[in-house]
C-alpha cells in the first residue's frame, strides 16, 4: 500500500513538473509572437468570421486543401492570433521547447480594415486580393515549418511554387479586367516572397513583408 502511495506521489510530481514546463513553453511562444496572443476559435467572433472568409476565398480559388489544412490546425488549437506581432510579419511559426508548436497570425492581417496602399494607383479590390494572397502564401509557408521543414530556402521555394500554381489555375476562369487584376495581385505576392527569400539568404532568418508596396506594374 505504501509503495502504491509513493508511486502515486511520484507520478503526481512528474505530471505537475511536466505541466509547469508546458506553461513555460507557452509563455515563451506568446512572448516570441509579441505578447497578448489568444487561440483562434468561436469565442472571438470577429477573428472567427475573418478566418471563415479567408477559407471561403481559398476554396473559391480551388485551394480547398490549404483551407482544410488551416481548419485542422485551428481544430488542434495550434492556430493563434497575435495582435502585436513585430518585424513586419503577418504570420509566424513558433516551436517552444518542442512542447508548444503554434502558428500565429497577425490580427490586423486577418481582420483587415484600411486600404493597404492608399497611394497606389490600383483598385481597392486588387489591393485586397494581393493582401489575401500574400497572407495565404505566408500561412502556407508557416505550415511547411509546422510540418517539420526547417530549411528557409526550400520553404520559400514551395511558397513561390504555390503562387505560381494559383496563377496558372485561377485567371482562366476570370474575365478581362478581373483577370488582369488577379494576375497583378499574384505577381506582386511572388515578388514580395522573392525579396523576403533574398533577405533570408543573407540573414538566415525569415523576414517580414508587411508594408512593402508592390512594385509590379498593372498590365494595360
Ligand atoms: Zn520560414
Helix/strand-derived category reads alpha+beta
Stretches where pLDDT is under 50 for at least 5 consecutive residues are none
The average pLDDT score comes to 92
Q: How would you write the strand order of the largest sheet?
A: 1-2-4-3
Give the number of helices: 7
Order of helices and strands: HEHHEEEHHHH
The amount of beta strand, in percent, is: 5-15%
Bound molecules: zinc ion
How large is the radius of gyration? 20 Å
Give the total of beta strands: 4
What oligomeric state best describes the polypeptide chains here?
single chain
Outline? elongated
Can you summarize the main beta sheet? Answer: 4 strands, mixed
Distance, first to last CA: 84 Å
Q: How many structural domains does the protein architecture include?
A: 1
Helix content: 55-70%
Give an overview of the whole structure:
The chain is α+β, with helices and mostly antiparallel strands and about 220 residues long. The chain has 7 helices and 4 strands; from the N terminus they run H-E-H-H-E-E-E-H-H-H-H. It has helices at about 1-30, 45-60, 65-75, 105-110, 125-145, 150-170, 175-205, and strands at about 40, 80, 90-95, 100-105. The protein has a 4-stranded mixed β-sheet with strand order 1-2-4-3. Helix 5 crosses helix 7. The protein binds zinc ion (ZN). Zinc ion binds near residues 155 and 206.
Provide a brief overview of the structure.
The protein is of the alpha+beta class. The chain contains seven helices and four strands.
Amino acid at each position: 500500500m505504501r509503495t502504491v502511495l509513493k508511486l502515486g506521489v511520484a507520478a503526481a510530481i512528474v505530471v505537475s513538473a511536466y505541466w509547469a514546463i508546458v506553461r513555460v513553453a507557452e509563455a515563451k511562444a506568446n512572448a516570441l509572437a509579441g505578447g497578448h496572443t489568444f487561440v483562434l476559435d468561436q469565442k472571438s467572433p470577429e477573428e472567427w468570421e475573418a478566418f471563415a472568409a479567408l477559407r471561403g476565398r481559398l476554396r473559391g480559388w480551388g485551394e480547398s486543401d490549404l483551407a482544410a489544412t488551416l481548419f485542422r490546425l485551428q481544430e488542434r488549437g495550434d492556430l493563434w492570433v497575435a495582435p502585436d506581432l513585430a518585424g513586419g510579419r503577418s504570420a509566424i511559426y513558433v516551436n517552444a521547447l518542442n512542447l508548444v508548436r503554434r502558428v500565429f497570425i497577425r490580427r490586423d492581417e486577418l481582420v483587415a480594415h484600411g486600404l493597404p496602399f492608399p497611394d497606389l494607383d490600383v483598385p481597392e479590390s486588387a489591393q485586397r486580393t494581393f493582401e489575401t494572397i500574400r497572407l495565404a502564401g505566408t500561412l502556407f509557408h508557416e505550415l511547411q515549418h509546422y510540418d517539420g521543414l526547417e530549411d528557409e530556402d526550400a520553404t520559400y521555394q514551395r511558397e513561390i511554387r504555390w503562387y505560381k500554381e494559383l496563377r496558372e489555375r485561377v485567371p482562366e476562369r476570370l474575365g478581362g479586367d478581373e483577370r488582369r487584376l488577379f494576375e497583378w495581385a499574384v505577381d506582386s505576392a511572388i515578388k514580395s516572397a522573392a525579396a523576403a527569400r533574398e533577405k533570408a539568404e543573407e540573414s538566415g532568418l525569415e523576414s517580414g513583408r508587411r508594408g512593402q508596396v508592390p512594385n509590379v506594374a498593372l498590365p494595360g
